Amino acid sequence: MRGPPHRGHCVTLEAQARAALKRGDLPAAVSAAKALTLAHPEQSMGFFLLGMAAAEAGQIAKAVPLIEAAVERGPRAEHLAQLARLLSLLRRDGQAAKAAREAMALAPVDALTLDTIGCVLARLGDHETSVVPFTAAVAADPGNLNYRYNLAAASGFTGRVAEARAHYEMILAADPGNARVHYALAILSRQTAQANHVPRLQTALAQTRRPEDSLRIHYALAKELEDIGNAPDAFRHLSVANAAHKQTIRYDFAQDAAIFDAIETLFGSGASALATGTGNADPAPIFVVGMPRTGTTLVDRILSSHRDVGSAGELQAVPLSVKKLAGTASRVVIDPATVAASGTIDPAAIGTAYLERASHHRPQGMARFTDKLPANFLYIGHIARALPNARIVCLRRNPMDTVWSNYKNLFASQSAYYAYSYDLMDTARYYARFDRLMALWESLWPGRVLQLSYEALVADQEGQTRRLLEHCGLEWDEACLSFHENSAAVATPSAAQVRRPINADAVGKWRSHAEALEPTRAWLEAQGIQTR
């Protein structure tokens, strides 16, 4: 009879599996991991490595139970961190947060595990907490530029601007062509004629080889050139970058038009087909919606400065709840088929599913919370029925400033939500459909949505803030006027602006490009949309 496997043999199998994973040889990794599992079924490492091989193969749902089996055999920080990462990819946010915290509690020392924990926390919106593992990861492996980038980004999101800048500069010292760092530095703060990175960016642009790098550096140049008052060159860089990227993603406005059509059909002419029900009565959520770059972050900061309100950030909880309950087979979160299928869902089921997903993100100890995903304006019909006591605020900004601000900001470049924004006329068309949809919601639920003017808020901060709080069922709180002192993290392009007192700097910015934007303005006016 054979005795138990020798310890050295198991160490060799583990090393073989890890080496195979590192070089991308998944069959060899699986073979070694299986042998390790058979040799020591009571130990965790074989199951963990089998799970990692499955994850590398893109089989996330298969990988999770294998790594859970590893954790059951004795928790290790590395295993819990990777479990948290995979759970977050599956949008199982509550379980991901729990696993990440358990991993951190085991005091990991290896840089990859620490960085993985930080990435999970950041993905879940907990940027403040993510700074701790990111800092430790950089301390453990100072030369790893990816770890340092993650720390720099978290530092920027949490208002540690000087630290963020220092880390970004250290990365560029080692990797002068790093395009995402060039872009991050450009948007970190407002540039001046005396202090900017334009010459360095021009050099980097001349040396780019990949389209995605060129896109980011063009955007960085446009941002800095606009900051220092060179509007023509800023527009030129945006035009080049956006035209190329639109071609890359093969966007056609008909894709978004079909979604708007489906929503209008469901809630307008097809309203009789909607499932009946009273929804979930929880009054906690406050939805802040609108076109991107119209003041949603500003209003979120104002509301979350209130003593009874915490910000949950930009949640995907409404879109994901509707998608899951609709049960459509498409791989995208929203499409015409999903919109059509969502009409038969019990409104209370959507409300309850939303609150469950949101519960993992809302700050503890607060009676109310904000969800500031701008694109939730597409779901106002669902929200109004599913959460009848939730409050909804929609930001409205001058149409031309809205179009220009969408066109000039680099959103998540692979996100379907913002695919329209790489073309001025597509953006104008999108705005026109947004405007029409908001009119539909107002006709169906009069007064349910507070349509708050960004320009009015800037001109009369206290008056409009009082109106906002009253709509949300909140008592007056003086702290809402000092939103710029709010220390919570901001992970949007507005991070620098909302840390300053309210100002009118962004009002009428489109006029710097009035000549180039004239065809867009004329088209909007022809649709009956006032642009002045």
From TrEMBL:
<dbReference type="InterPro" id="IPR027417">
    <property type="entry name" value="P-loop_NTPase"/>
</dbReference>
<keyword id="KW-0808">Transferase</keyword>
<dbReference type="InterPro" id="IPR019734">
    <property type="entry name" value="TPR_rpt"/>
</dbReference>
<protein>
    <submittedName>
        <fullName>Tetratricopeptide (TPR) repeat protein</fullName>
    </submittedName>
</protein>
<dbReference type="GO" id="GO:0008476">
    <property type="term" value="F:protein-tyrosine sulfotransferase activity"/>
</dbReference>
<dbReference type="InterPro" id="IPR026634">
    <property type="entry name" value="TPST-like"/>
</dbReference>
<dbReference type="Pfam" id="PF13432">
    <property type="entry name" value="TPR_16"/>
</dbReference>
<dbReference type="Pfam" id="PF14559">
    <property type="entry name" value="TPR_19"/>
</dbReference>
<dbReference type="InterPro" id="IPR011990">
    <property type="entry name" value="TPR-like_helical_dom_sf"/>
</dbReference>
<dbReference type="Pfam" id="PF13469">
    <property type="entry name" value="Sulfotransfer_3"/>
</dbReference>
